[in-house]
Specification:
499 residues, alpha/beta, six-stranded parallel sheet
Length: 499
Amino acid sequence: MTTAAAGSPRTYQVRTYGCQMNVHDSERISGLLEQAGYVRAADADGNPDVVVFNTCAVRENADNRLYGNLGHLRPVKDKHPGMQIAVGGCLAQKDRGDIVRKAPWVDVVFGTHNIGSLPALLERARHNAAAEVEILESLDVFPSTLPTRRESTYAGWVSISVGCNNTCTFCIVPSLRGKEKDRRPGDVLAEVRALVDSGVLEVTLLGQNVNSYGVEFGDRLAFGKLLRACGEIDGLERVRFTSPHPKDFTDDVIAAMAETPNVCHSLHMPLQSGSDDVLKAMRRSYRSEKYLGIIERVRAAMPDAAITTDIIVGFPGETEADFQRTLDVVREARFSSAFTFQYSKRPGTPAATMPDQLPKQVVQERYERLIATVEEITWAENRKLVGQQVEVLVAVGEGRKDERTGRMSGRARDGRLVHFDVGSLAGQIRPGDIVHTTVTYAAPHHLNADGEPLAHRRTRAGDAAEAGRAPRTPGVLLGLPTVGAPAAAPAQTTGCAAH
Protein backbone atom coordinates (compact mmCIF):
# COMPACT_ATOMS: atom_id res chain seq x y z
CA MET A 1 0.00 0.00 0.00
CA THR A 2 1.37 3.41 -0.85
CA THR A 3 0.49 6.97 -0.07
CA ALA A 4 -1.00 9.40 -2.58
CA ALA A 5 0.57 9.28 -6.03
CA ALA A 6 3.13 11.96 -6.76
CA GLY A 7 1.40 15.23 -7.58
CA SER A 8 -2.02 14.15 -6.32
CA PRO A 9 -3.45 15.76 -3.19
CA ARG A 10 -3.30 13.93 0.10
CA THR A 11 -6.60 12.72 1.56
CA TYR A 12 -7.96 13.21 5.07
CA GLN A 13 -10.63 11.86 7.40
CA VAL A 14 -11.92 13.44 10.63
CA ARG A 15 -13.43 11.25 13.35
CA THR A 16 -15.47 13.19 15.90
CA TYR A 17 -16.54 12.32 19.44
CA GLY A 18 -18.61 14.34 21.90
CA CYS A 19 -20.78 17.43 21.86
CA GLN A 20 -21.99 19.88 19.23
CA MET A 21 -18.97 22.08 19.90
CA ASN A 22 -16.75 19.22 18.78
CA VAL A 23 -18.88 18.58 15.70
CA HIS A 24 -18.50 22.25 14.75
CA ASP A 25 -14.76 22.18 15.54
CA SER A 26 -14.47 19.25 13.12
CA GLU A 27 -16.05 21.40 10.42
CA ARG A 28 -13.26 23.92 11.11
CA ILE A 29 -10.62 21.16 10.95
CA SER A 30 -11.99 20.01 7.57
CA GLY A 31 -12.03 23.58 6.28
CA LEU A 32 -8.42 24.14 7.34
CA LEU A 33 -7.20 20.93 5.73
CA GLU A 34 -9.02 21.66 2.48
CA GLN A 35 -7.65 25.20 2.41
CA ALA A 36 -4.19 23.63 2.80
CA GLY A 37 -4.79 21.40 -0.22
CA TYR A 38 -6.01 18.15 1.31
CA VAL A 39 -9.02 16.35 -0.15
CA ARG A 40 -11.65 14.60 1.92
CA ALA A 41 -11.36 10.81 1.67
CA ALA A 42 -14.31 8.83 0.38
CA ASP A 43 -16.29 7.12 3.14
CA ALA A 44 -15.22 3.72 1.84
CA ASP A 45 -11.52 4.66 1.84
CA GLY A 46 -9.92 2.79 4.72
CA ASN A 47 -6.50 4.30 4.04
CA PRO A 48 -6.65 8.10 4.07
CA ASP A 49 -3.31 9.90 4.21
CA VAL A 50 -4.31 11.81 7.37
CA VAL A 51 -6.71 10.69 10.12
CA VAL A 52 -7.69 13.31 12.72
CA PHE A 53 -9.37 12.28 15.97
CA ASN A 54 -11.34 15.16 17.53
CA THR A 55 -11.81 13.88 21.06
CA CYS A 56 -14.08 14.36 24.06
CA ALA A 57 -13.02 14.07 27.71
CA VAL A 58 -16.42 14.24 29.39
CA ARG A 59 -17.28 10.56 29.64
CA GLU A 60 -15.36 7.96 31.65
CA ASN A 61 -14.66 5.69 28.68
CA ALA A 62 -13.34 8.49 26.45
CA ASP A 63 -9.71 7.48 27.05
CA ASN A 64 -10.32 3.80 26.39
CA ARG A 65 -12.25 4.57 23.23
CA LEU A 66 -9.48 6.75 21.83
CA TYR A 67 -6.62 4.38 22.59
CA GLY A 68 -8.62 1.43 21.32
CA ASN A 69 -9.21 3.22 18.01
CA LEU A 70 -5.58 4.29 17.82
CA GLY A 71 -4.56 0.68 18.38
CA HIS A 72 -6.77 -0.51 15.52
CA LEU A 73 -5.23 2.10 13.25
CA ARG A 74 -1.60 1.20 13.94
CA PRO A 75 -1.39 -1.79 11.57
CA VAL A 76 -3.16 0.27 8.89
CA LYS A 77 -0.53 2.97 9.25
CA ASP A 78 2.30 0.41 9.17
CA LYS A 79 1.05 -0.72 5.74
CA HIS A 80 0.44 2.83 4.49
CA PRO A 81 3.75 4.72 4.14
CA GLY A 82 3.39 8.42 4.80
CA MET A 83 0.09 8.13 6.66
CA GLN A 84 -0.29 10.54 9.58
CA ILE A 85 -2.47 10.42 12.68
CA ALA A 86 -3.43 13.56 14.62
CA VAL A 87 -5.28 13.78 17.94
CA GLY A 88 -7.03 16.98 19.00
CA GLY A 89 -9.90 18.14 21.17
CA CYS A 90 -10.56 18.01 24.89
CA LEU A 91 -8.81 14.72 25.62
CA ALA A 92 -5.70 15.98 23.82
CA GLN A 93 -5.84 19.18 25.89
CA LYS A 94 -6.03 17.06 29.04
CA ASP A 95 -3.54 14.26 28.29
CA ARG A 96 -1.04 16.24 26.22
CA GLY A 97 2.25 14.39 25.79
CA ASP A 98 0.83 11.25 27.39
CA ILE A 99 -0.88 10.44 24.09
CA VAL A 100 2.41 10.08 22.21
CA ARG A 101 3.87 8.14 25.14
CA LYS A 102 0.97 5.66 25.11
CA ALA A 103 0.61 5.60 21.31
CA PRO A 104 4.01 6.53 19.80
CA TRP A 105 2.66 6.08 16.25
CA VAL A 106 0.66 9.31 16.65
CA ASP A 107 2.21 12.16 14.64
CA VAL A 108 0.45 15.29 15.95
CA VAL A 109 -1.28 16.25 19.20
CA PHE A 110 -3.06 19.63 19.33
CA GLY A 111 -5.46 21.15 21.85
CA THR A 112 -8.74 23.01 21.94
CA HIS A 113 -7.05 26.42 21.69
CA ASN A 114 -4.94 25.93 18.56
CA ILE A 115 -7.03 24.13 15.95
CA GLY A 116 -5.66 26.53 13.35
CA SER A 117 -2.14 25.16 13.79
CA LEU A 118 -3.02 21.66 12.55
CA PRO A 119 -1.85 21.95 8.91
CA ALA A 120 1.49 23.43 9.99
CA LEU A 121 1.94 20.75 12.67
CA LEU A 122 1.28 17.99 10.13
CA GLU A 123 3.88 19.46 7.77
CA ARG A 124 6.39 19.88 10.59
CA ALA A 125 5.89 16.28 11.75
CA ARG A 126 6.42 15.01 8.19
CA HIS A 127 9.53 17.14 7.70
CA ASN A 128 11.09 16.18 11.05
CA ALA A 129 9.86 12.57 11.02
CA ALA A 130 8.93 13.05 14.68
CA ALA A 131 5.78 13.68 16.66
CA GLU A 132 4.66 17.29 17.17
CA VAL A 133 2.78 18.15 20.39
CA GLU A 134 1.44 21.70 20.72
CA ILE A 135 -1.03 22.55 23.49
CA LEU A 136 -1.81 26.20 24.23
CA GLU A 137 -3.25 27.39 27.55
CA SER A 138 -5.44 30.06 26.01
CA LEU A 139 -7.21 30.66 22.73
CA ASP A 140 -4.91 31.37 19.80
CA VAL A 141 -7.57 32.81 17.47
CA PHE A 142 -11.34 32.65 17.77
CA PRO A 143 -12.45 29.53 15.85
CA SER A 144 -14.83 31.56 13.69
CA THR A 145 -11.83 33.13 11.95
CA LEU A 146 -10.92 29.70 10.55
CA PRO A 147 -12.26 28.33 7.25
CA THR A 148 -15.08 25.84 7.60
CA ARG A 149 -16.30 22.91 5.54
CA ARG A 150 -19.97 22.65 6.54
CA GLU A 151 -21.46 19.17 6.78
CA SER A 152 -25.03 20.19 5.97
CA THR A 153 -26.56 22.17 3.10
CA TYR A 154 -29.57 23.19 5.19
CA ALA A 155 -28.44 23.61 8.83
CA GLY A 156 -25.34 25.25 10.28
CA TRP A 157 -23.63 25.72 13.64
CA VAL A 158 -22.47 29.22 14.59
CA SER A 159 -20.31 29.70 17.70
CA ILE A 160 -21.17 32.81 19.68
CA SER A 161 -18.75 32.06 22.52
CA VAL A 162 -16.17 29.53 23.61
CA GLY A 163 -15.18 28.46 27.10
CA CYS A 164 -17.13 28.55 30.34
CA ASN A 165 -16.97 30.61 33.55
CA ASN A 166 -18.91 28.09 35.65
CA THR A 167 -17.27 25.72 38.12
CA CYS A 168 -19.55 22.66 38.17
CA THR A 169 -17.80 20.00 40.24
CA PHE A 170 -18.48 17.17 37.77
CA CYS A 171 -17.29 19.01 34.66
CA ILE A 172 -13.82 19.15 33.17
CA VAL A 173 -14.78 21.45 30.28
CA PRO A 174 -13.74 24.83 31.83
CA SER A 175 -10.21 23.57 32.43
CA LEU A 176 -9.98 22.33 28.83
CA ARG A 177 -11.87 25.04 26.93
CA GLY A 178 -10.85 27.97 29.16
CA LYS A 179 -12.76 31.02 30.34
CA GLU A 180 -15.66 32.30 28.29
CA LYS A 181 -14.74 34.48 25.32
CA ASP A 182 -17.56 36.15 23.39
CA ARG A 183 -17.70 37.10 19.74
CA ARG A 184 -19.00 40.50 18.81
CA PRO A 185 -22.65 40.42 17.66
CA GLY A 186 -21.74 41.87 14.26
CA ASP A 187 -19.29 39.01 13.63
CA VAL A 188 -21.90 36.41 14.61
CA LEU A 189 -24.56 37.95 12.38
CA ALA A 190 -22.13 38.22 9.47
CA GLU A 191 -21.45 34.48 9.69
CA VAL A 192 -25.17 33.73 9.91
CA ARG A 193 -25.82 35.86 6.80
CA ALA A 194 -23.01 34.10 4.94
CA LEU A 195 -24.62 30.74 5.71
CA VAL A 196 -28.06 31.94 4.64
CA ASP A 197 -26.58 33.34 1.41
CA SER A 198 -25.24 29.83 0.68
CA GLY A 199 -28.72 28.33 1.11
CA VAL A 200 -28.78 27.34 4.80
CA LEU A 201 -32.27 27.57 6.33
CA GLU A 202 -31.54 26.75 9.99
CA VAL A 203 -28.82 28.04 12.29
CA THR A 204 -27.96 26.83 15.79
CA LEU A 205 -26.13 29.34 17.99
CA LEU A 206 -23.51 27.49 20.02
CA GLY A 207 -21.83 28.18 23.33
CA GLN A 208 -20.93 26.34 26.52
CA ASN A 209 -23.39 28.75 28.18
CA VAL A 210 -25.13 30.79 25.50
CA ASN A 211 -27.24 32.96 27.75
CA SER A 212 -24.24 34.39 29.59
CA TYR A 213 -23.24 35.76 26.18
CA GLY A 214 -22.24 39.40 26.46
CA VAL A 215 -20.49 39.12 29.82
CA GLU A 216 -17.14 39.87 28.20
CA PHE A 217 -18.31 43.11 26.61
CA GLY A 218 -20.64 44.14 29.44
CA ASP A 219 -24.15 43.60 28.04
CA ARG A 220 -26.35 41.30 30.15
CA LEU A 221 -29.12 41.42 27.56
CA ALA A 222 -26.90 40.65 24.57
CA PHE A 223 -28.23 37.14 23.93
CA GLY A 224 -31.87 38.20 23.68
CA LYS A 225 -30.83 41.03 21.35
CA LEU A 226 -28.88 38.56 19.22
CA LEU A 227 -31.95 36.33 18.85
CA ARG A 228 -34.05 39.31 17.77
CA ALA A 229 -31.37 40.38 15.29
CA CYS A 230 -31.41 36.90 13.76
CA GLY A 231 -35.12 37.43 13.20
CA GLU A 232 -34.32 40.25 10.78
CA ILE A 233 -32.20 38.12 8.43
CA ASP A 234 -34.13 37.38 5.24
CA GLY A 235 -34.10 33.71 4.30
CA LEU A 236 -33.26 32.44 7.79
CA GLU A 237 -36.22 30.22 8.64
CA ARG A 238 -35.17 28.56 11.91
CA VAL A 239 -32.97 29.67 14.79
CA ARG A 240 -32.01 27.36 17.66
CA PHE A 241 -29.44 27.63 20.44
CA THR A 242 -27.62 25.38 22.87
CA SER A 243 -26.91 25.24 25.73
CA PRO A 244 -28.22 27.74 28.25
CA HIS A 245 -27.63 27.58 32.01
CA PRO A 246 -30.61 28.03 34.34
CA LYS A 247 -28.73 30.50 36.55
CA ASP A 248 -28.38 32.96 33.65
CA PHE A 249 -31.70 32.37 31.90
CA THR A 250 -33.68 35.62 31.90
CA ASP A 251 -37.17 36.71 30.92
CA ASP A 252 -35.90 38.90 28.07
CA VAL A 253 -34.69 35.70 26.33
CA ILE A 254 -38.12 34.11 26.78
CA ALA A 255 -39.70 37.21 25.26
CA ALA A 256 -37.24 37.17 22.35
CA MET A 257 -38.04 33.51 21.68
CA ALA A 258 -41.78 34.12 21.78
CA GLU A 259 -41.75 37.32 19.71
CA THR A 260 -39.21 36.43 16.98
CA PRO A 261 -40.97 34.31 14.35
CA ASN A 262 -37.96 32.34 13.15
CA VAL A 263 -36.73 31.41 16.65
CA CYS A 264 -37.93 27.87 17.24
CA HIS A 265 -39.99 27.04 20.31
CA SER A 266 -37.50 24.44 21.45
CA LEU A 267 -35.31 24.81 24.50
CA HIS A 268 -32.56 22.60 25.84
CA MET A 269 -32.28 23.42 29.56
CA PRO A 270 -29.90 21.16 31.56
CA LEU A 271 -31.37 20.11 34.92
CA GLN A 272 -28.64 17.65 36.06
CA SER A 273 -30.52 16.86 39.29
CA GLY A 274 -33.86 17.66 40.89
CA SER A 275 -32.38 17.56 44.41
CA ASP A 276 -31.31 20.87 45.88
CA ASP A 277 -28.67 19.12 48.00
CA VAL A 278 -27.15 17.47 44.94
CA LEU A 279 -27.33 20.71 42.93
CA LYS A 280 -25.42 22.41 45.73
CA ALA A 281 -22.78 19.64 45.73
CA MET A 282 -22.56 19.97 41.94
CA ARG A 283 -22.04 23.72 42.39
CA ARG A 284 -25.01 24.44 40.13
CA SER A 285 -26.10 27.89 41.27
CA TYR A 286 -29.88 27.37 41.01
CA ARG A 287 -32.35 25.15 42.81
CA SER A 288 -35.27 23.06 41.57
CA GLU A 289 -37.86 25.76 42.36
CA LYS A 290 -36.04 28.30 40.17
CA TYR A 291 -35.65 25.72 37.42
CA LEU A 292 -39.34 24.83 37.38
CA GLY A 293 -40.19 28.53 37.47
CA ILE A 294 -38.28 29.04 34.23
CA ILE A 295 -40.11 26.12 32.63
CA GLU A 296 -43.43 27.57 33.76
CA ARG A 297 -42.66 31.00 32.27
CA VAL A 298 -41.45 29.48 28.99
CA ARG A 299 -44.68 27.50 28.65
CA ALA A 300 -46.80 30.54 29.54
CA ALA A 301 -45.17 32.47 26.69
CA MET A 302 -44.97 29.49 24.29
CA PRO A 303 -47.47 26.74 25.13
CA ASP A 304 -46.15 24.61 22.27
CA ALA A 305 -42.51 24.73 23.48
CA ALA A 306 -40.63 21.43 23.49
CA ILE A 307 -38.16 21.38 26.39
CA THR A 308 -35.27 18.94 26.57
CA THR A 309 -32.71 18.46 29.30
CA ASP A 310 -29.60 16.71 30.67
CA ILE A 311 -29.74 14.61 33.84
CA ILE A 312 -26.93 12.93 35.80
CA VAL A 313 -27.75 9.91 37.98
CA GLY A 314 -25.54 8.68 40.80
CA PHE A 315 -23.61 11.83 41.71
CA PRO A 316 -21.49 11.25 44.85
CA GLY A 317 -23.67 11.34 47.95
CA GLU A 318 -26.98 11.11 46.05
CA THR A 319 -29.54 9.39 48.29
CA GLU A 320 -32.71 7.59 47.28
CA ALA A 321 -34.63 10.68 48.45
CA ASP A 322 -32.46 12.87 46.22
CA PHE A 323 -33.13 10.60 43.27
CA GLN A 324 -36.87 10.62 43.95
CA ARG A 325 -36.77 14.40 43.85
CA THR A 326 -35.22 14.20 40.38
CA LEU A 327 -38.09 11.96 39.27
CA ASP A 328 -40.54 14.47 40.75
CA VAL A 329 -39.03 17.34 38.75
CA VAL A 330 -39.01 15.23 35.57
CA ARG A 331 -42.72 14.51 36.04
CA GLU A 332 -43.50 18.17 36.68
CA ALA A 333 -41.37 19.56 33.83
CA ARG A 334 -42.82 17.17 31.20
CA PHE A 335 -39.71 17.08 29.03
CA SER A 336 -40.04 16.15 25.36
CA SER A 337 -36.68 14.40 25.57
CA ALA A 338 -33.84 13.95 28.05
CA PHE A 339 -30.17 13.09 27.69
CA THR A 340 -29.48 10.88 30.68
CA PHE A 341 -26.06 9.98 32.04
CA GLN A 342 -24.65 7.80 34.77
CA TYR A 343 -22.15 9.81 36.79
CA SER A 344 -18.58 8.89 35.94
CA LYS A 345 -15.42 10.10 37.64
CA ARG A 346 -13.31 12.48 35.61
CA PRO A 347 -9.78 12.96 36.98
CA GLY A 348 -9.12 16.60 37.71
CA THR A 349 -12.68 17.43 38.77
CA PRO A 350 -13.65 18.11 42.41
CA ALA A 351 -16.39 15.46 42.28
CA ALA A 352 -13.82 12.73 41.55
CA THR A 353 -12.42 13.03 45.09
CA MET A 354 -15.73 13.50 46.91
CA PRO A 355 -16.71 10.92 49.54
CA ASP A 356 -19.74 8.63 49.17
CA GLN A 357 -19.10 7.54 45.58
CA LEU A 358 -22.05 5.28 44.74
CA PRO A 359 -21.74 1.59 43.82
CA LYS A 360 -22.24 0.86 40.14
CA GLN A 361 -25.26 -1.37 40.74
CA VAL A 362 -27.07 1.40 42.64
CA VAL A 363 -26.40 3.91 39.87
CA GLN A 364 -27.50 1.43 37.20
CA GLU A 365 -30.78 0.63 38.97
CA ARG A 366 -31.63 4.31 39.39
CA TYR A 367 -30.67 5.01 35.80
CA GLU A 368 -33.08 2.37 34.55
CA ARG A 369 -35.89 3.84 36.64
CA LEU A 370 -35.12 7.32 35.29
CA ILE A 371 -35.18 6.06 31.69
CA ALA A 372 -38.55 4.39 32.28
CA THR A 373 -40.01 7.58 33.77
CA VAL A 374 -38.63 9.82 31.01
CA GLU A 375 -39.97 7.53 28.28
CA GLU A 376 -43.39 7.35 29.88
CA ILE A 377 -43.57 11.16 29.83
CA THR A 378 -42.06 11.72 26.38
CA TRP A 379 -44.43 9.15 24.88
CA ALA A 380 -47.43 10.80 26.51
CA GLU A 381 -46.30 14.24 25.31
CA ASN A 382 -45.74 12.95 21.77
CA ARG A 383 -49.17 11.29 21.65
CA LYS A 384 -50.72 14.73 22.13
CA LEU A 385 -49.41 15.63 18.66
CA VAL A 386 -51.21 12.84 16.79
CA GLY A 387 -53.53 14.46 14.25
CA GLN A 388 -51.62 17.75 14.25
CA GLN A 389 -49.88 19.24 11.24
CA VAL A 390 -46.11 19.71 11.45
CA GLU A 391 -43.55 21.51 9.32
CA VAL A 392 -40.55 19.25 8.66
CA LEU A 393 -37.11 20.33 7.49
CA VAL A 394 -36.01 17.23 5.59
CA ALA A 395 -32.71 15.82 6.87
CA VAL A 396 -30.04 13.28 5.97
CA GLY A 397 -29.40 10.20 8.09
CA GLU A 398 -32.00 10.81 10.81
CA GLY A 399 -34.01 7.64 10.13
CA ARG A 400 -32.15 4.34 10.28
CA LYS A 401 -35.07 2.38 8.78
CA ASP A 402 -36.05 4.92 6.12
CA GLU A 403 -34.72 2.88 3.20
CA ARG A 404 -36.71 -0.16 4.28
CA THR A 405 -39.93 1.71 5.04
CA GLY A 406 -39.77 4.19 2.15
CA ARG A 407 -40.08 7.09 4.56
CA MET A 408 -37.89 10.19 4.80
CA SER A 409 -37.05 11.99 8.04
CA GLY A 410 -36.48 15.45 9.41
CA ARG A 411 -37.07 17.75 12.35
CA ALA A 412 -40.23 19.63 13.20
CA ARG A 413 -39.89 23.24 14.29
CA ASP A 414 -39.93 22.14 17.93
CA GLY A 415 -36.99 19.81 17.31
CA ARG A 416 -38.90 16.53 17.36
CA LEU A 417 -37.81 13.82 14.93
CA VAL A 418 -40.48 13.04 12.31
CA HIS A 419 -40.46 10.07 9.91
CA PHE A 420 -42.87 10.80 7.05
CA ASP A 421 -44.28 8.97 4.04
CA VAL A 422 -43.40 10.68 0.75
CA GLY A 423 -46.55 9.40 -0.99
CA SER A 424 -46.86 10.57 -4.59
CA LEU A 425 -43.82 12.87 -4.11
CA ALA A 426 -41.33 10.00 -4.20
CA GLY A 427 -38.12 11.18 -5.85
CA GLN A 428 -39.09 14.84 -5.65
CA ILE A 429 -38.27 15.64 -2.00
CA ARG A 430 -34.62 16.44 -1.21
CA PRO A 431 -32.75 17.00 2.08
CA GLY A 432 -33.16 20.69 2.88
CA ASP A 433 -36.69 20.91 1.45
CA ILE A 434 -39.70 21.75 3.63
CA VAL A 435 -42.63 19.35 3.96
CA HIS A 436 -45.93 19.85 5.78
CA THR A 437 -47.58 16.65 6.95
CA THR A 438 -49.91 15.23 9.63
CA VAL A 439 -48.73 13.14 12.58
CA THR A 440 -50.38 9.70 12.60
CA TYR A 441 -48.40 7.84 15.29
CA ALA A 442 -46.21 8.71 18.27
CA ALA A 443 -43.35 6.80 19.90
CA PRO A 444 -41.24 7.95 22.87
CA HIS A 445 -38.45 9.28 20.64
CA HIS A 446 -40.09 10.11 17.31
CA LEU A 447 -43.29 10.83 15.41
CA ASN A 448 -44.60 9.12 12.26
CA ALA A 449 -46.62 10.81 9.53
CA ASP A 450 -47.86 8.06 7.21
CA GLY A 451 -50.33 9.96 5.05
CA GLU A 452 -49.77 11.89 1.83
CA PRO A 453 -47.74 15.08 2.53
CA LEU A 454 -49.94 18.18 2.66
CA ALA A 455 -47.34 20.39 0.97
CA HIS A 456 -43.78 20.32 -0.32
CA ARG A 457 -41.59 23.38 -0.83
CA ARG A 458 -38.36 23.11 -2.80
CA THR A 459 -35.59 25.24 -1.31
CA ARG A 460 -32.12 26.50 -2.21
CA ALA A 461 -30.78 24.15 0.46
CA GLY A 462 -32.46 21.28 -1.35
CA ASP A 463 -30.93 22.47 -4.63
CA ALA A 464 -27.49 22.45 -3.00
CA ALA A 465 -28.04 18.96 -1.58
CA GLU A 466 -29.13 17.67 -4.98
CA ALA A 467 -26.02 19.18 -6.56
CA GLY A 468 -23.76 17.80 -3.81
CA ARG A 469 -22.65 21.25 -2.66
CA ALA A 470 -21.75 21.73 1.01
CA PRO A 471 -21.49 25.34 2.21
CA ARG A 472 -17.98 26.59 2.92
CA THR A 473 -17.41 29.74 4.89
CA PRO A 474 -13.98 31.38 4.51
CA GLY A 475 -11.90 32.46 7.46
CA VAL A 476 -9.01 34.78 8.17
CA LEU A 477 -5.95 33.06 9.59
CA LEU A 478 -4.69 35.68 12.01
CA GLY A 479 -1.03 35.24 12.86
CA LEU A 480 -0.90 31.64 11.66
CA PRO A 481 1.63 30.24 9.20
CA THR A 482 0.56 30.01 5.58
CA VAL A 483 0.46 26.41 4.42
CA GLY A 484 0.36 25.48 0.78
CA ALA A 485 -0.96 22.29 -0.75
CA PRO A 486 1.09 19.45 0.76
CA ALA A 487 3.06 17.42 -1.70
CA ALA A 488 2.64 13.68 -1.62
CA ALA A 489 5.25 11.97 0.54
CA PRO A 490 7.79 9.72 -1.20
CA ALA A 491 6.81 6.07 -1.17
CA GLN A 492 9.74 5.08 1.02
CA THR A 493 8.74 7.49 3.82
CA THR A 494 7.68 5.69 6.99
CA GLY A 495 6.05 8.63 8.71
CA CYS A 496 6.65 9.06 12.42
CA ALA A 497 10.02 7.61 13.45
CA ALA A 498 8.80 6.80 16.93
CA HIS A 499 7.12 3.44 16.21
